[in-house]
Amino acid sequence: MEELFRDFKSAGDPTAKLHLAQVICMELTLHAMVEEEIFYPAFARATGDEQMLQHSLKEHQELKELIGRVPAAENLEGAIEAIKQHTLHHVEEERRGMFAKAKSSGMELATLGGRIMTRRSEVAEAIQQA
Question: How much is the average pLDDT of 18-40?
């Protein structure tokens, strides 16, 4: 994602910027969807930490709202910057909190990661075929 955000920022052509904004939004939407579908339920079962789970779900909802504003954004750069800042904050919180707790709880993170990647590929392929 960091590379996509850098590419967006450095793109000079408005058409390229729009395309990159769409890719960023799609990638983040896919990520949130499979994380909510696979990782979050496994985290809840393994840790019982409902507060941390609800906080992450709230941040996903906020991200979805930011993404929803992109198509009508008069300031595309500002809209993508808001998404970037929100995403970086969320990722850092997950790394320090949720993923650390998941690891210490004995969750099979490698197995879950594989399931997440497989599901993400399935959904991405279905979207492309639609």
Answer: 95
- Which helix H or strand E contains 66, and what residues bound it? helix 50-69
- Residue 113 CA: distances (Å) to CA of 4, 7, 76, 117: 21, 26, 32, 6
What angle is formed at CA 122 by the lines to CA 118 and CA 126, rounded to 5 degrees?
170
pLDDT higher than 90, residue 97: yes
Residue 83: exposure state from Cβ atoms within 10 A (0-12, 13-18, ≥19): buried
Residue 61's domain comprises 2-129
In the chain, how many domains are there? Answer: 1
DSSP string, 78-113: HHHHHHHHHHHHHHHHIIIIIHHHHHHTT--HHHHH
What dihedral do alpha carbons 118, 121, 122, 127 form, nearest 10°?
160
Task: Give residue 129's pLDDT band: very low, low, confident or very high (50, 70, 90).
Answer: confident
Long-range contacts of 114-118 (CB under 8 A, 24+ apart): 115/38, 116/34, 116/35, 116/38, 116/39
- 3-class secondary structure, 1: coil
